Each structure stands twice: as structure tokens, then as C-alpha cells.
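Researcher: If only I could read C-alpha cells as easily as an amino acid sequence. Walk me, if you will, through where the backbone shape changes along the chain. I have put the entry right below:
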Amino acid sequence: MGVCFSIQLDKSLDQLVPPFLRYLCWNNLENNLESLQRCMQDLSEMRDDLLRLVSKEEDRGLQMFAQVKVWISRVGTVESETNRLLDDSIVELGRFSMYGCCSLISGSTYRYSQKVDMTLEKVNTLIREGRFEVVTERLVSQRAPHKQQPTDHQPTGSRANLLESIWRRLMDENVSTLGIYGMGGVGKTTLLVHLNNKLSEVGHNYGYVIFVVVASKEIEDIQDEIGKRLGLQWGRETKKEKAAEIFQVLKIERFILLLDDIQREGVDLQRIGVPQPSRENGCKIVFTTRSQEVCRRIKWVEATLYVECLPPQEAWDLFQKTVGEYALTSHPDIPGLARVVAEKCFGLPLALTVVGKTMSSKRTVHEWHHAIHLLLSSSSSVFSGLEDILSALKFSYDSLPDEETRSCFLYCALFPEGDDIKRQDLVNYWVGEGLVSHDIKGYEMINDLVRASLLMEDESGYGVKMHGMFREMALWIIACDYERQYFVVKGGIKKMPSVIDWRRVRRMSVTDTQIENISDSPDCSELTTLLLQRNYNLEWISGDFFRRMASLVVLDLSHNSNLSELPEEVSCLVSLRLLNLSGTNIKDLPKSFGELLKLIHLDLESTSNLRSISLISGLLKLQVLRFYGSKASLDLSLLKQFECLKYLKLLTITVRDVHVLKTFLRSRLAGFTQGLYLEGLKVSGESGKSFAATFGALGSLRNVEMVNCDIIESDMVWEDDRRHQYSPSNQTTPRNPWFMNLSTVVILSCTHLKDLTWLIYAANLVSLTVKASSMMEEVICKEKAGNVEVEPFQRLQVLDLDDLSELKSIYWTSLSFPRLRKVNLTKCPNLRKLPLSSTSVEKIYDLRIEVEEAWLQRVEWESTEAEERFRRAIHRASVY
């Protein structure tokens, strides 16, 4: 660092500096400006790396230390100071060059030199202080509420009697544990859900009622579900540590634990951390399982109850209700034929419902005769005792419109039982495999399978699930067609599965395992799909593993967070069309990567260590490229290369250079970009347009994240664009809808941002996160919104506002939030009112509002009714 002078200048006279000080100041200023630019770059990179680390840790349930947050804020402040000094450097150095070495200089120029010197010292100090050994700590939150589960209808007849029997046993002080068993699809889960809801309705004196779907989940997954209900949030705790914490909470509380779908191996309460229920502690466990043998094997079970299929009349009633009166009365002969079809469902509720939905659109006698023929001819003895039920379920599979749809359904058996499958992932796989020709067809296919009840929608609406019996039926169909297709599906194992004949394996799924290394060299000449995601211990894959997979078209290695490299032998995958490396720790793509010439889909999102993606320039068939939130960012050279990829139709990008951003916005790529991750930029409109007009015009844009950006919005330009967007005669109809597909917005540490009024145009916004933006005063500004009569946030599900010290308003009046599920408000001291009336949210039991205790003392509710209604959803948030 250069020499620092401390000379008092008479500011009123703008006193001149002597020649010898000018000479030293000249050399000092040039050196310090160069050092300041270099050191600030180093500091910015330190800060960005730290933010990425914190983001990962927060995903694991940890929270940032206060001193880390203060350090990040100080970096933002000194970054602004540095940018101003560097912007002024050309002018100040120009003043020096106007005079000779021995000339006098002005006091203002000398003071500028001092500011550079002092700012450099601040930067170096922050670099020294920013080497944190630990950046996060464990988050402790309030317990989650006991919520009702959604059900289609109340139980009647024998099912109502069965529920009453379960209730009596649960209330019996001599029964602490109850096992409910019966075949898949008979209605055990429905009974357990009704039991859970009845506990909520009638009230109870238990500290916790905990509902957990066990299925094929690992112990740690079950612990996480229980921990969430108890208000425990974990980071990297071991299973033993989690068990100890669960035990510490439950040993002093009366609880009821409802465990759905325990499988052959049962559950080990001690390893999970659940105390043994007893008459002394008054705790209860009720579980469901398909096997009576499981009930016998679990030593702590005190009572069991068998769930039978429906008696004939109740089965017929359910089938009639599902088929509907219109179909049954379409022809006089149909009711008689319908009874035959119903009988072939053998009283199994799942079969009655699925077959009934399939037949609800059948209006002719011929169609009903054909259905009976299929049900009678598809029986098989592969699974003794189950063939009749599986045949009944297979009828819905056989009734699918074509072989393409049936193949897509069977593909779903690759996923673990009970797994939520993202629609987008499923479509990507199908397109990669060539099962469907394009994305739209894939989404239509999912909807068809949901309508046929062969798939179920998950709670979020973004994913689907496969019922255990349908998965068993799919695997049964695959086993019957052994010569043509062979699946290997494993989870929770410690090493790669042993396979008798690798050459027959067509598709393989090995997920959520403890595998650390893969060194096998299998001959997988027929393998087309390999799913190896979420193996968090996986660090290394040998080159030999990929040598004999010439037919592989889909490879998913996503969310293997310890995987830091790919072998060069990945080039042996000459048929590969889809490669997903998102969420991995890879630093570089293999040099041979450019040889994957058939690749059409490449996902590199959230690769926080990936340095460059320039090797993809030769992948001329690429249609989908994602690197949103990657360390690798778009530059001008890459942009030119991407424009040469003539088949490219979907893009998500990371940009850290304002010149690159401006060039990108003028390119053809902007038209099909779905994700923009912007970091460290001055973000403004282009060519006299407002920010809203510029970015809102990107019709494909779905996800936007801006980190440490200076977002510039001219009020005058905004007003002009707003008027142009809406016609005077109809203020609710935009001429060219802005942000029409925008779903997720994340704003982090954008310190100069005052509002997000442009969100009034984001009609499909699902999630909004704004953090550490110290100048934000309003989310939607009334003056800027003008007289546009558009009610925002109609699809909003998640609202997360944190560390917004100047925030005073979200919206100036109450709004309806039909889909709101989670609100987090922390460190917003000036926000006194929420835009909520007593009728804003219909399903209040689905809503969770996390706020600070102190905030509750100063909040102003729209009415007493609103306060009473929403206080049920409020929970104390943790603040660091």
C-alpha cells in the first residue's frame, strides 16, 4: 500500500499542494487506484463465494451468523464507495496530466487521493476479516401445527365402523401401539388420514400428533419428517445426533405417531429417536402395512386390525358413484355389464375407483363388452394371490390410448415408491429417451396419466407420484416382458447393485444411497437410462464405468454434491442425449466433452465451482442449456457461440458483466431464455425503456435472481411505458403482457432498490424472496402503479421478506391470496400492516406465517376478525 499523508488543508480556500507532495501524490494515486481495483475484485469474489456457501447451508436448515451478515453488508457499502472512486478516476488523473511534475495541485484532487488511500485500507481490512471458519449455525424454530390432511369424502358403511373401531382402540389406555394391515389399495392410508383429521377436529391432550409416510424412506428421511413437525431444523447432524434430539423432545411430551406404509423391514424406533410408547407415558403409535408378517415381526405392537376389501354392495355403490349416472344410463344393457366389471375389481377400492374412472367415458355396449374381455383375458399367475387384483389394475393400463403412453407410464417405475417426481424432470427424461417428441406432448401425457388415476398430483402441483400398487403392477408388467425390457431400481444401498446379466438391463435407477465411489466396469450395451442422483456421499466415478454404455441416452448425476469431476471416458457415451449435472461440485468439464455430439439437453444449474462451459460450443444439436446460478457465466465469446446453436430453444443463464447483459438482451437468445441469474451488475432498461418493459418483454422468462445488483428504474420512463402497456379504455387488459410466465423472483442484497412495482404485471408469480435490500420501502408502490386495476399475487404461494429495514408496505390495501401457503417476515421493523383481510386466504389451515415475537406487538390488523383468523397460522421465526 502507498504512503498516506495527513495534511490539513483550508477547504474554504481550496489550498494548493506543494510540488514535492504532488510528485509523491501522483505515484501514490496511480498505484493505489490499481491496487484498489484489484483488491476490490478479490473482495467481491470472497463475498460471492461466501453467499453461495451460505445459500447451500440455509438449504440444510442452518442460519447465517450475525457477524457474517454484518461483514457482507460492509462489503456492499465499500463496493459502492469504490465504484464511485473508480468512476471519477479518469477525471482526477486527467487533472494531473495537465501540469508538469513540479506544478501545484488543487486541494480537491489531494482529498480524492486520500479517499482512495482510505478506501483501499477498508478493502484490505475486510479481506483480512472475511476469512470465516464457520458461517452458519443451527436454526431452531417453533413446532409445526397439527394439520388436517385432504380427503375426498367421509367414510361410510363398513369403513365408518372400521374407523370407529380404530378410534376406540386408540383411546384405550391399555393399547399403546396399533398395527393396521391389508393389501395395497384397500384404503389403509385413507383410514389413517381420517384418524389424523378426527384428532384435529375433536381436540386432544397430546403435545404432538405426527403423520409420516414411511414407504421406502431411509431412517434419516423419517427423522427429518419428525424433526420438521417438532420444529427441529438440522444441518450436517448425523443420524445418531438427530435421534438424540428427537428423543430429548418426545421423552417429555405425550405424542401420537401415525406411520403410513411400513414395509418388510419394519422400523427401528430407537434408531429414529422415538421413545417406546407405554401405559406410563401415555404415548401412542398407529401404523399401516401391507403385511401381517410385519405386524408379527415388530415386537412393540400390542394390537392389530385387518382391513378387508369392500363387501359387494358397498363395492357396487362406489363403482356407480365413480362411473357416474350419465354413462350408466346411456344404454339399458350397461348397468348389468357394469356389475360384471365391478365384480372383477374384487372389492378393492383402488381398483374400483381407477376402473370406474376409465369406464366413465364409455357410452356404448360394445365398449363395455370390450372392457370385460380385457379383464377376463389379462389374468396372470406371475404373482400368486395378487394376479386378480393386478389384472384389474392392468385394465386401466391396457385402456391407455397408445403404446407411447403405456411406455411413459412404465418409465415412472424407475422412481422410488412414494417419491415426488417433478413434471419437468419426467418430461426431460421422456424427450431424451425419445418416448415423446417434444415438451408439450410430454406434459399432455402426464395430464392423461393423472386423469386416468395412474399417477397422482403431489401437494405442490409441480410434481406427480405413483401409488405403490401401480408401481408394483408396472414392475409386474415389465417382468412379464423380461426379454424386451429389464429395470434395476435400488435405493439406500452402500455399493452398486449386483446384477446377474448387465447386458439385459435397459433402465437403472440408483438414488439416495451411501455409495462413495463407483469403480465397476459393467457391460451395459442395452442400457438407455441411468439415474444416479442424490447420492450425497458419491465423490468419484471411474472412467471404466462408462466405457461400455454406447446405448445410454439419459444420464442424471444431479445433486451429488461431493462429485467434483467427470472422467474423460464420458466421451464413450456416444448416444447420450440428456446429461444433468446440476447441484454437483464439478470444477471443469472433461476435455473430451465436445465429443458428445448427440447431446440435446445439458443441465449445469447450481454448479457453484464450475469455471467454464466453453467446451460445449461444438454441441451443435443442443436444444436445452441450463447454467442458472453457476460459477461459470456468460461472456461475449460464449454468446456468439450460443447464437450458432441453431436448434437451441431453452436457455437459463448466469451473467456478471453489464456489457454482456446488454448484448444478450439484443440477441435472439433472449426470446427463449427461461432463467436469468444476475450478479454484481447495474441493471436497467435498454434503449430508453424501463426495467419492466425491457425484462418484461422476455416472454419465456420464468425465474429471475438478482444478487448484489444496482437496479435502476427511471420514474419518467416507467410512467411512459406503463401508459403504453395499458389502453385508457381498459385498464385491466395489457396490450403486450409483461412477465407473463414469470414464476420465481429472488432479490438479494440489492441495496439501492426502493420497490418492485413491476411485479403487478407478473400474473403467474408463485414465489417472491427479497432479502438484505436496505432501501426498499414498498413492494408495490401506489403512485407508480397508477390507476392500473390489476390485483397482483393471485398465484403467489411463498412470500419471504428478510432484513428490509425501510420496508413500510407490501400493498396499500388488502388483497386476496387464493394460493398463499407460506409467509416469512423477519427484520422488517417498519412494516406494520399486511395486505390481509379476514377473507384474503380461504384455506387458512394450509397457511404458515413466520414472524418475530416483537413484530406481533406492533402489527396493525385490518379487523378483529382478520387478527383472530390469521393468528392461528402465525409462528415465531428465528432471527440471527
